[in-house]
Write a structure and sequence with these properties.
alpha/beta; Rossmann fold; 2 domains; 7-stranded parallel β-sheet; 6-stranded parallel β-sheet; 14 helices; 13 strands; 19% strand
């Protein structure tokens, strides 16, 4: 295991096609912070202003660079010759294509981080045999295997969360304003793929059986006005709160009786889903992407088919009528996080593979 004396340097490239959110510290920042405590020195070069700012705010080395093609070669040469850097981690597609062959030429050990479902997997066959690929879920690994080189080694390391930030002391009772309500909630971008229209339709059905049900939607996006209109059309506008993005997610999640993830498309591992489970909340999630790997059906929640508001409503009603299930799913979810998604354990997996 590296120590502070080891001073092992690592180059980290991230030139994504879209920026990370400004509302929350990127998971990559948290992971690098923890690895830095193990004795690694990271040097981030990225076009993502939010990611660079997050690194700097947390005392990490970060440099913003827009000229990907022009600068990668001199950066690789300088760090190899003058910093004795031997490891390159590529976090997004651009540098995987451009930097991998150069890094191989200069003798780097190369790692690719695969955290998203994308449609450009054909590019991965070009240089993937020269990299160790770290996939964040079994679902992503399965998408990768048909297109990467047969020489590629694909390792699954799920994301984790810092349990110190989600200690049992953080699990608090509902606020007084919600104690007489059955509160379901979700956290997501307000876009068509999030499936919020189906959630609203299920709320309409469930409210006929559960008059005190309320829905809290945390997030922003281009679909907000359409969703507000749909809630009015369904006659449930008084049962829905659109609260925008919230910095203190823990406080809001503590008010939920049930968390619902109604996404329609393949999702990478949602760190919010992990946070919800760490806070002991039961979950209904659609059977897309990595969701079934996180939510253990019948143990930590219920996994349903997407685009099925009738089924979603029935599950909501069943759980309302069986509060013991809600409690047990929440307890099991917390245990699952402690066993499989503890950030300290995730860091140890990275530590083993990097050395």
């Amino acid at each position: 295991m590296p120590s502070e004396k080891t001073n092992l340097n690592i180059l980290l490239f991230s030139f994504p096609f879209s920026k990370t959110s400004q509302k929350k510290k990127p998971y990559l920042t948290t992971l690098v912070q923890k690895l830095t405590e193990k004795g690694y020195n990271f040097y981030l070069f990225s076009s993502d202003r939010n990611l660079v700012s997050s690194f700097r705010e947390n005392g990490l080395n970060a440099y913003r660079s827009l000229a990907v093609v022009l600068l990668l070669k001199p950066i690789l040469i300088y760090h190899r010759l003058f910093r004795q850097t031997k490891i390159l981690i590529c976090a997004s597609l651009a540098e995987k294509i451009i930097a991998t062959p150069l890094a191989k030429l200069f003798g780097y050990k190369i790692f690719w981080l695969e955290n998203e479902f994308i449609n450009r997997r054909k590019f991965h066959g070009w240089w993937s045999g020269w990299a160790t690929i770290i996939a964040s879920s079994q679902a992503i690994k399965e998408q990768l295997l048909p297109v990467v080189s047969q020489k590629s080694y694909v390792k699954i390391i799920h994301p984790g969360i810092d349990l110190a930030e989600y200690s049992l002391e953080k699990i608090l009772p509902q606020s007084k304003q919600y104690q007489l309500q059955y509160v379901i909630g979700t956290v997501c971008r307000l876009k068509p793929e999030s499936g919020l229209g189906y959630l609203l339709k299920s709320l309409k059905t469930a409210s006929e059986i559960i008059p005190n049900i309320h829905l809290i939607i945390i997030g922003e996006g281009g679909e907000k006005q359409k969703l507000i209109w749909l809630a009015r059309q369904l006659g449930i506008e008084q049962k829905v709160r659109f609260v925008g993005w919230q910095d203190d997610l823990v406080r809001w999640i503590n008010n939920f009786d049930l968390y619902i993830l109604p996404s329609l498309v393949k999702d990478s591992v949602s760190t919010v889903l992990l946070e919800v489970m760490a806070l002991g909340k039961p979950i209904i999630a659609t059977k897309t992407g990595a969701n079934p790997e996180i939510v253990e059906h019948g143990q930590t929640g219920i996994v349903i088919e997407p685009e099925n508001p009738e089924m979603m409503a029935q599950v909501i009603i069943n759980l309302y009528n069986n509060p013991d299930w809600l409690e047990q799913y929440g307890i099991n979810g917390r245990k699952r996080i402690e066993e499989y998604f503890d950030l300290e354990k995730v860091v140890e997996e990275y530590n083993r593979i990097l050395t």
